[in-house]
Amino acid sequence: LEDLQDAFDFCYKVHYQPGEDRSRDPQYTRQLQALQAKLQNLDQQRREVLAQMQQLLGRSETLRELLQQELGDWRERQQRSCLGAPAETHLRPLETWFTELGQGLFQLRQLLRALSDLRHKVTYERDPLTAETPLLEQRLQEQLTDLLKSAFVVEQQPSTPNTFKRPLVLRTGSKFSARARLLVRLHDRNHRMEATIHIDRDPPKVKGFRKFNILTSSSKTLLAGDSPQEGLVCDFQYLTLKEQKDSRSGKGSKGTGESPLVVTEELHLITFTLAYAYCGLELELQTSTLPFVIISNNNQFSSAWASILWFNMLSSDPKAQQFFSAPPPAPWPRLAEVLSWQFESVAERGLSQDHLLMLAEKLFG
Question: Which residue range or ranges hold the Signal transducer and activator of transcription linker domain (predicted)?
Fold first, then answer.
């Protein structure tokens, strides 16, 4: 395109002489006809390039929708694995696909910028670049933004280093860790990307809902390994929670006027926020953990874990912090499956039908 455009521009400046009546000069007429042919060829080539761009953006949109489905499946597997289910939760395949698509979209972005530069050098009436390039840039920007926002995920849910393999139950004063990953492995090594964490950024409007502070550093630089295969990770380790004391309420009080949830049914969220920048594109990316329960002593552990089981079995909204204000009942087949996962996670073997029948008789008579 650039070569065609330069050839046309050169001929235009050499041969076209507006304001002079040279209609009777056959050589000038031939030069104008050749110039018109060059312009038509240039116009056709521009339209073909734009059509290819449209086609590529359509294909990338289809691929992005497929990746969203794959990512949704991974989230479900991660949620099941938190309950003890045997599930494959490696992110490497997804990371590879997200990165490839991100690279393709950023390359298209560079090409569109090059097309804009060509348009500024040479344009004409009904120039397709003038009409279509801004729309393509907007469509591409939307695709890149959606891809990057969905690519920021919680790789490791909040968990304490215990032997029970039971995440999402944290204890005040005890250390825990959580890790987020950006699946698009594209970053500028000269630009430092900072990730921060917040607990209960938008807390539910419930009187008596406890508030907590994260005592250790709540910001971290996004780590990129020496090789691009190691990914982009923000790993928060040795975090500690401390409850904020409400000076207006008495000792042990959780507020008056409403019946707030018991401690083991109070659900909390940690939000990761990342200031992303690459090739002139700057975005704020966010992702949240699954809801977790915060206890203050080990006697509350069983009840807290029951809440985690119940929520992840039955909630369709991963951010429903008021789930236990009206918890739904669980069908026995679903609960039986989850109980079997529990045994398998610690005993390497699930429950048989006889085992489940015995538990059902104990529960229901």
Answer: 321-365
